[in-house]
Structures are given as C-alpha cells and as structure tokens.
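User: My instructor asked us to take a sequence, write out its structure as tokens, and then describe one feature of it. I'm not sure where to start. Here is the sequence I was given:
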Amino acid sequence: MRSWPLPLLLLTSSFTLPAAWPGVTFNKDILPILQNNCQECHRPGEAAPMSFLTYKDTRPWAASMRQAVLTKKMPPWHADPAHGKFLNERRLSQSEIDAISTWAQTGAIEGDAKDAPPPRQFATGWTIGKPDVIIDMGTDFKVPSSGTIDYTYFAAPTGFKEDKWITKLEVRPSARAVVHHVVLYARAPGSKAFDFVRAGSMGVVEPKDPDDPHKPDIGEGQFYGLTEGGHLEMVGVYVPGGDAYVTRDGQARLIKAGSDLIFQMHYTANGKESVDRTRVGIVFAKQPPRERVINTFVFNPDMHIPPQEGNHRVDATVTLLEDVKVQSFFPHMHVRGKAMEYVVTYPTGETQILCNVPRYDFNWQMTYQLAQPILLPKGTKIRVSAWYDNSPNNPANPNPKADVYWGEQTWEEMLAGFMDFAVPVNLNPARIARPPKTAQVAQAH
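Assistant: Let's start with the prediction itself. The structure tokens for your sequence are:
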C-alpha cells in the first residue's frame, strides 16, 4: 500500500517523482495482479504473444500494458457489470488498473524480490483432472503460415455404446497460437446437421455466392438444434484463456450413444507453419444427475445488413414452451458485430436484461457464466439483439458495399446468442421450442 495518494499530475503529465518516493513495484504490486488475471494466457506455450511470468519478460511491455488496462482492452471481458453477476468475471478493479498505470509511468521498477509472491503453479495437462476418455479430431491439420483459412470441420466418432452423462469437458488444441476458437458439437445418430462432414473425415463449408441476389424477409428467430430433440448440441468451446465446461452439482450434459463429435475449427495464420491435432477430454458423471444441461442458441437465419450501415440492429425472438433455468451466455457474431444484448419478457410483462455486451470483439469470444441461474418460466420471451457495423469506419469490414446475410464464412454474418439451460433430466429438449404434437393438432382444429 502507498503511504500517501498518488498526485493527480501523474495521470496527466510527465511529472517526475523524487527518487526516494517508494512508488509501485513489480514484485509487490504488479506480479499478484498478473498471476490472478493475465498469466493464464501470458506464458510460454499459450495463446498470448508475450510472457508475463517474470520482471525481465514483462518490463518491455509496461507502456502497452498501461494502455491496454486503461482502455479495458485487457484482460478481455466485455459484459456490462450493470447486468448480471458472473462466476468467471475477469474485470480488473479500479485500484488494479491504477497500480499498473502508475507502475508504467513511474519507471516500471522491479522492487525487492522478497516482496514477490510464490510463482503460480499451472496445470501441465488437463485442467479438469484425468479424463475418463480422450477423443481427438482424427488427423493432423497443417496450418499455413499466411492467408485466410476457412472454417474447417472434423467429425470424430465417440464409440459410445450407451448414452453418457458428462460433468466435465475440456477442448485442448495442440497448436494454441494458431487456434482462434473451437466449437464442439455432439451429433447423435439420425441428425442431418453438418452432413457435409462424415465420421472420420474433414470438411469445409462451401461458400455461398456473395453476389446472390436473394432478399429474405426478416424472421423472428429460432432455437438452434432444440427441435431435433437433442440430436445436435454444442457441448464445448475453446477460446484463448477460456474455461473448461464444468456442470454444477447435480447436473450433467448428455451425449447419446453412437454420437459423433464435430470439431468446428477456426485457425488464424501467424507467420509460422504449424500442425494442430485438437483433443477433447471428458469426465463422466459418477451419479445420475438431477438436471440436464443443454446448449442452444437463439438465431435469425433471415438476417440482412444493408451496405454502409454503421449501427444496424437485428433481433431474434423466441418464446419458451417449458420452464428452464438459464446459466450462461456466449454471444457469437463475425467481424461486423459490435454489440449483443439478451433481454427477457416474463409472462407478467416484466422485462429484464440478462446480459449485455456493448463492445463485442470477434477476437475474444467469451462465455459469461451466471453466478446464480435464473428461472425463466414457460411463456417467457427471449429477445437477442445484435448491432453491426457494415461501414467503412470498421477496419475489420471486408466490404462495406456488400449486402450481408447469414453465413458460415467470416465475410458473412451471424446472430447466434448461445445459452446454457438446466432442465429436468426427463425433458425432451424439443418441448422447449415446439409444442407436443397433440397440442399442434388441437390448435389446427
């Protein structure tokens, strides 16, 4: 702790402190912050390009660190603190931001080695402990040193002879420096999803013609996968610095017998040719679960973003047909995406913002895990709203003159508001999204 407040001049000028001023030091003040918030990625072999394990490694980046924390670019966390409390929040406190800023402005001093905390110990293998089973994507994939790499898909059979309840799942690329993200799906027998990639093979989505003149109507929204009755489900995600998928007490995810795991791989070239063989580790439930965790996303496949629009909004709205508990959010858009918001309207008419991401960043796609699940009763309307910048002011925009529609390619767009629901284990997920057939017949008459 400092013995007196830092003069405000330090934050706005090149004021020089007396040499005797104790100041902020790396070992006493900065290293604990880095251990708790940064070293998960900023260490050798992980996604970040520089290491923050030691003073020698960190000192050259002091000015950049100050800028990153003042603008809240780092550590990456984009959920608005006004809406929702999250288990995995990585936001720095104002005092931590002030400490890094002050340290960088006052000479980035190392300080006394005796003030340094012990080095943080990181798991050298799976963070979920020893998996019960490990499945890889089936082949080595050579990532080129340059160029744009289309989303690539691999289908790996699980070999499960019976339905499996899982409590922990971790996706681990072998070449993390070139893996932007991984989305892992479980495809049950009978599902036609991702039919362009068969078990034991690799596939790439064929791009649609960017000059396709179709002009779709703007639909309300849909739940992805639920109408298949649980035959397709996202069961894991990897992003740099992200967490393994771990269910809460009494909960588990279901992977059905005979399912394939679909690895959706997004690689980014970094100037060096690499070889990746991503694996997934799975831990089975030791006891029958009380609740099933299912993943879906609210989406609008009829979305249309006009050319030159700098703040175009697209909505996707669905109505729940069963009670669910929502536990997490994972906003997904492409390079024109700028913000996403999850809002519910309860059957009483009351509305609530569950999660708001006002500064979406395609390079940091994150899962926001609620500290306490929220009950959404039957009849609740979920609206996911997304805003897009299709203007020349967006430096990531591949073509501001294009009409943009839904598509897998990065130059196309998505509105995909992923959510984790907890439901009774005997509930068919299809019932959340569509009424039973008997009810449909009654409505038709």
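For the description part of your assignment, you could build on this observation: Confidence is low (pLDDT under 50) at residues 1-21, 209-218, 438-445. Try explaining in your own words what that tells you about the chain.
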